[in-house]
């Protein structure tokens, strides 16, 4: 990087003239991180806190609640780890992803989901830890596998619906033993895949639901229905169903990236993750060009346990590009 360019002013590579898809790929990854950082200061706050803080409608990554302005949280940190694993391994190597998660968890991140922490610090092997946790606790349908989906959604998108949804389920299962989380994560990946291809993800919900495990389809169909509203949620939005339902509602009821994220954060509750998921979808729809520059300028992602690196927007863009380009490399049938 040019040493004369301060790190917090890292330039974002220009979108290529032919880069409709490229802009959307970057939008999914950067948009998710921006949503995470936008929502973090409002986590566990009441509905309407965001619009009360920014009555003029021009929100900033303002920081607060222990977060620096522009600082992304565990959602984006884990998404980056997934993305780096996919690129560096040349495919889905679940033991490697789990090892990166464990190293990160041991690096004392500022925030980590309770369920994710239990699984990653249990000492159990990668292919048993989440299942054993679910056996004991019976509740494992948190939104923690939705929040880190942006990078894997980009990576698997070119491989088609079946490969995308299968990979999503396996990544979710690393930390979440409840199939409800696997199915929701698979739906999110599939909707992002559709959006990256330039189509409307809201029109693809029905086809995605048809691929959902029959035991879980009705409950997912309920929260993803066009008439669903966050007030209809039957759980706190730290659960997987209202989290994805709210993201779709925010996308459905707004016309741009910033408006979708503002709507998501204003719902309150688990605002960083709901906005990270919304940002994944809305970024894939509207593209990086729709992410406000006042957000990308300060956005940054610490990476505990991994040399304490801090990624900036330009680093996220580079990762997104590599994930999309890596998709030309076929993956073994065993992972499809
Ligand atoms: Mg978080």
TrEMBL record:
Q: Which UniProt keywords apply?
A: Glycosidase, Hydrolase
* Region feature Disordered, mapped onto this chain: 1-23
Biased composition (Basic and acidic residues) is annotated at 1-10
Q: Does the keyword Cell membrane apply?
A: no
Q: Which GO terms describe its molecular function?
A: hydrolase activity, acting on glycosyl bonds
Q: Which SUPFAM superfamilies match?
A: ADP-ribosylglycohydrolase (SSF101478)
Which superkingdom?
Bacteria
Task: Give EC number(s), comma-separated.
Answer: 3.2.2.-
Top-level EC class:
hydrolase
Q: Which residues form a coiled coil?
A: none
UniProt-listed InterPro entries: ADP-ribosylglycohydrolase, Ribosyl_crysJ1, Ribosyl_crysJ1_sf
Q: Which family does it belong to?
A: Belongs to the ADP-ribosylglycohydrolase family.
Protein known as? ADP-ribosylglycohydrolase family protein
Origin species, per record, is Streptomyces salyersiae
């Amino acid at each position: 990087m040019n040493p004369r360019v301060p790190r917090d002013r890292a330039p974002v590579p220009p979108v290529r003239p032919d880069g409709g898809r490229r802009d959307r790929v970057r939008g999914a990854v950067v948009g998710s991180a921006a949503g995470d950082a936008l929502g973090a200061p409002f986590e566990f706050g009441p509905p309407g806190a965001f619009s009360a803080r920014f009555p003029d409608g021009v929100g900033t990554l303002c920081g607060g609640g222990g977060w620096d302005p522009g600082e992304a949280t565990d959602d984006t940190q884990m998404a980056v780890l997934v993305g780096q694993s996919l690129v560096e391994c040349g495919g889905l190597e679940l033991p490697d992803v789990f090892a990166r998660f464990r190293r990160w968890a041991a690096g004392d991140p500022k925030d980590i989901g309770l369920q994710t922490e239990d699984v990653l610090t249990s000492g159990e092997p990668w292919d048993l830890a989440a299942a054993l946790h679910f056996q004991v606790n019976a509740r494992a349908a948190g939104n923690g596998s939705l929040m880190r989906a942006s990078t894997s959604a980009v990576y698997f998108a070119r491989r088609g619906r079946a490969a995308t949804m299968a990979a999503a389920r396996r990544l979710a299962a690393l930390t979440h033993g409840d199939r409800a989380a696997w199915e929701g994560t698979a739906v999110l990946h599939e909707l992002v895949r559709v959006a990256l291809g330039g189509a409307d993800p809201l029109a693809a919900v029905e086809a995605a639901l048809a691929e959902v495990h029959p035991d879980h389809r009705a409950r997912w169909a309920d929260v993803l229905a066009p008439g669903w509203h966050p007030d209809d949620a039957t759980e706190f939005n730290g659960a997987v169903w209202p989290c994805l339902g709210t993201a779709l509602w925010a996308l459905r009821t707004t016309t741009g990236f910033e408006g979708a994220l503002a709507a998501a954060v204003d719902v309150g509750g688990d605002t960083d993750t709901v906005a990270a998921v919304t940002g994944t979808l809305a970024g894939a729809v509207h593209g990086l060009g729709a992410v406000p520059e006042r957000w990308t300028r300060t956005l940054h992602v610490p990476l505990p346990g991994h040399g304490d690196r801090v990624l900036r927007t330009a680093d996220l863009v580079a990762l997104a590009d590599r994930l999309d380009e890596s998709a030309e490399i076929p993956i073994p049938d065993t992972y499809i």
